[in-house]
Each structure stands twice: as C-alpha cells, then as structure tokens.
Please model this.
Amino acid sequence: MRFTRVMRAVARGAIPIVVASASPSTAVVVAFAAALPARMAAQAEKTERKADLTGTWLFSVTTDAGTGTPTVTLKQQGDSLSGHYSSQMLGEAELKGTVKDGKVRFSFTLDVQGTTLTVTYSGTVESTDAMKGTVDLGGMASGTFTAKRQ
Model:
C-alpha cells in the first residue's frame, strides 16, 4: 500500500493508530496522523457553516450550444434555494433548488420557441465564494460551469 493511500485511510479513520514504542521522530508522525481526522472534520464543519449561498453570482458556462455568463441571484433558507436567473441567451426565470453537504442543485423552466425547457445546474460549493459543476439544458445540450460571488 503506497504512503498516500495509507494516509488517506488514516484520515478517514479506517486505520487505527497504536504506538507501542517509537523513536521521537516516529512519535511525531504518528501524533500528526492521529490528529488528521479531527482536523479534517473540524474544517468540514467550519466550511459547512459558512456555506450560505445568498447573494449575486456570476456564472461562466460552457455547453455544446455555446458559452454564456448568466447572473444568478440566490436566497438560501436552510437547505432550500430560491432566486432569479438572467442571461442574454436564455432570458429570465425564477429558480428553485437545494444545497446540502456541499452540493448545490437548482433548476428553472423556460419557454424556448414554444418548447418547454428545464435547465438544471448541479455542482459543488468550492468555498464561500465559488461553485462549479455541470448544467443540463433539458437534454438538448449539456456543459460545465464555474461561479463566483459578486
């Protein structure tokens, strides 16, 4: 098992650490490895508490149908999202969605030349001011997005 795989298993808590006797340098490495799961959990909890997506976001979208830079205004209440989507290509729409465990998903419905189109964004919260993920344009096109809080 390579060192990085061992460290990942230690970080997940899958490998318990027991020190019967060790040199001072081994004891330092073991103490550091033992502290990793607690540090990682504390960091995840801290990020989760900060993950309020309320605000105005500038998206950069690349799809099979082209590129765009829509503006999305979000309001988060608990795990629920509501807001407004605005782009030159697709126009304006009200949206609904969810955010939970660092994952964000929202959708809206548009009328495009007499055809109802449901647009769905799914991604991850990268930080308090950044998201990235995929977009599905009603099965007609798909792509990726990044978003930054304005």
